[in-house]
Amino acid sequence: MAGTTRKKAGAAKAPASGKARKDVAEAASPRGRAAAKAKAADDAAKPDLGQVRAQIDGIDQQIQSLIKQRAHWAHQVGKAKGKLAAAVDYYRPEREAQVLRKVVDRNDGPLADDVLVRLFREIMSACLAQQEPLKIGFLGPEGTHSQQAVYKHFGHSIHGLPLSSIEEVFQEVEAGHADFGVVPVENSTQGTIQSTLDMFLTSNLRICGEVELRVHQHLLSRSGRVEDIERVYSHPQSFAQCKAWLRQYLPAAEKIAVISNADAARRARNADDAAAIAGISAATVYGLKSIAGPIEDRPDNTTRFLVLGRELFPPSGNDRTSLLVFIKDQPGALFHVLAPFAKHGLSMNRIESRPGHTGRWQYAFFIDITGHAQEPAMRLALDEVAEFAQEVKVLGSYPVAIA
User: Where is this site: Essential for prephenate dehydratase activity (predicted)?
Assistant: First the structure.
């Protein structure tokens, strides 16, 4: 027993292995002592998870209380305005734009501007819906980019009306069945949506807002396998936005144009050999799988939408005015129409010509100008334009798109 004890004791005093000696040496070195000190400090600074969660719960409670207060005062605004006819009478786009610009101005991180704008938009949407949800018409069916634009501009506390065509969106707003409508007007890759511009030639509706939406296209199908695809459905604009990808990966597939990307998704869900080009939200709505995406040729692919209403709204402080100008058939007519804007320091953002429907070879010009129609410089410019134009129609003055 004694021998055994001495042997164990001896084993305990045996020299450490080479690796163990190296570890001991490194720990005793200045660098090792500094690392150990840093680890200890890090462990000491590490917050207690329970305390952190308690802080978050407390902040959540404060946020909910403040939202409740905001909803109360939003309701008081409704009372201050008196008994109005409908929800649309309580909605003021210029006021919402001013609120959201302040959100952006105050933001110093860590959340991005567009994230905070989206949060505040939803709060305002919910507060306004206390009176009555707005009815918003858009190019349907559900799952279109137009529906995404509706939610981006109005929030989710609205009643969406998916309609079958851009013309029907105009008609439903004109008839009062929808409070506002949202229609696409131009794409950064493929240019103007001509059917939207043509509607303004005969419509009395006003433009009271704009939405800029980054558009990401996905190839969707029931099976989720690209090798199954023999035909692809989509809107002509989406085909044009994805033509390079389609040429590389589906050169032999039949391309079938339909009225909207959501309609394409609805058709694609019926067969394994069919696919649709649409937004990823359409996959959720119609039970499809994403084969690939984003597949648009340009990563900055953006569509601009217009918000249609029945009246003009006051200035918000950063506005755009859209004009429809019919020019007289005379030398220098277009120059005389544009010169007053430069003279009064107003910037032209866009000009587009379309057949005027007033006679053969007669044209109308759609012009976007920075500023509001009620501002003095714009009023002076419009008065001078009227001297040379056959007709000048203010389609709308509205807040420039935010985030």
Answer: 303
Count Cβ atoms below 10 Å from residue 118 Cβ, excluding itself. 17
Cis, peptide link before residue 110, omega less than 30° from 0: yes
State the Cα–Cα distance between residues 153 and 101, nearest whole angstrom: 14
Q: Do 394 and 200 contact (CB within 8 A), yes or no?
A: no
DSSP state of 53: H
| DSSP 8-state symbol, 182 | E
Say how far apart CA 149 and CA 99 lie, in whole Å.
19
Q: Which residues pair with 351 in a beta bridge?
A: 367
CB 293 within 8 A of CB 218: yes
Distance from C-alpha of 111 to C-alpha of 338, rounded to nearest angstrom: 42
Question: Residues 6 or more apart from 392 whose CB is under 8 A from it?
Answer: 323, 324, 325, 326, 382, 385, 386
Question: pLDDT by residue (tens digit) across 35-47?
Answer: 777 666 666 678 8
Return phi, psi of residue 237, to 5°. Answer: -65, -40
Q: How far apart are CA 156 and CA 158, in angstroms?
A: 6
Q: CA 106 to CA 373: how far, in whole Å?
A: 29
Q: What is the pLDDT of residues 328-342, one digit of tens each?
A: 777 888 898 999 999
Helix and strand numbers, DSSP H then E, in the chain: 15, 15
- Residue 217 vs residues 18, 20, 249, 281, 290: alpha-carbon distances, Å: 60, 58, 15, 10, 10
Distance of CA 165 to the CA centre of its chain: 21
Q: pTM score, two decimals?
A: 0.81
Residue 95 structure tokens: 């006021």
- The predicted model gives 155-168 an average pLDDT of 94
Residues 97, 399: contact at Cβ < 8 Å?
Answer: yes
CB count within 10 Å of CB 192 equals 16
* Four-point Cα dihedral 369, 374, 376, 379, nearest 10: 70
Taking only the tens place, the pLDDT of each residue in 255-293 is 999 988 989 999 999 999 999 999 998 999 999 999 998
- Domains, the chain, with CATH or none: 55-128 (1.20.59.10), 135-215 (3.40.190.10), 223-296 (3.40.190.10), 313-399 (3.30.70.260)
> 10 Å Cβ neighbour count for 20?
10
